[in-house]
Task: structure prediction
Amino acid sequence: MHDNQLLIKSEMASLAPCEPLDVKTQLNYFVWNDEFLTTKPYIALFNVPEGIDECNFETRPGPEETIHDMRGAEPNFTLDRHAFCIRRARLELDKFDRETVKREYLPWVERFLMTEIEGASEIVIFDWRLRSSMDRSDLADGTQVDLDDTSVCLGPVGAVHIDQSDQAAAIRVQRHMGSRASNLLNKKQRYRIINVWRPICDRVEDWPLAVCDGSTLSPPKMMVVDHVRRSHIGEAIYPIYDSRYRWHYLSQQRDDEILVMKMFDSEQGVAARRKYN
Result:
C-alpha cells in the first residue's frame, strides 16, 4: 500500500509459504532516444489538455530475467546492503477507508518504523496509497487517474522505476520538514525515504512486487524523469536495462509480511542507497 510501484505478473501454483519459486519474466525499461540529450523526459500524472503529449518517452520489455524468490531467505536482506528487507508484524484492521487509514494505520506504521529502522529518531509520513490488480474494466481506454487524490485505488505500475531522484528527495525534505530541513540537507543528519508495502488481503496470489538489489544499480543507466502533477513537479528515475541488475520478490506474501524499501538515503557510505522496483 503506497505510491508508484512496479509489479510483475507471474503464473504460479498455490504454494506453501516455505517453498521458494524463482520466476522468469521480462520487465519494462526506459528506451534511450538521442532527443534526451537536449530534452528532459517527462510524464504527466493527470489528464492533460488536448494536443499535449502525456509522456515523451517509451518503455519496452528487456531481455528475460530471473526474479529470485526471497522465501526462506528473508533474514539475509537488509536496508543498507540491498535497500529492502522483510519484516513480520500483524495489524488487525478490516477496512482501509481514508479516515481509518489516517486514524489507525498511519500511526501504526510510524511505531513500526521507529522499531525497525536502525538509528531512526523521527518518522514523517507524507503519502499513502491503496493498490489493486483487480479488473479495472470500468475505466475507459486511456483514462488517467489523478495521483493527488489518495481516495483513488491504483493499479500495478508497468515500468521499472525509482520513486525519488536525489533532487526530488531534497524537495520532499523542504516540503515536509519545515525549519529542520536545512540541517538534513546540509548532511548534519541522515535522512531516508522509506516505502512500506504490505498486503491487505490474506496473501498475494497475483502481481507480486519485484524489487532490485540496490547494490547492483548502475548510475550511468539511470534516467531522471519529471513526474508532472497538478500540485507540483517531482522527479523519478527510470533505468535503462543492465544485465547486472539482480531482482527479487516474495512469493505468496502474507498480510503479516511487510516489505520495507528504501527510495533514498543521504548516507554515502552504505552499499545500497536506493532500489528499483
The CA atoms of residues 161 and 238 lie 4 Å apart. Residues 1-16, 135-142 have pLDDT under 50 and may be disordered. The chain has one domain: 23-265. The first strand starts at residue 23 and ends at 25.
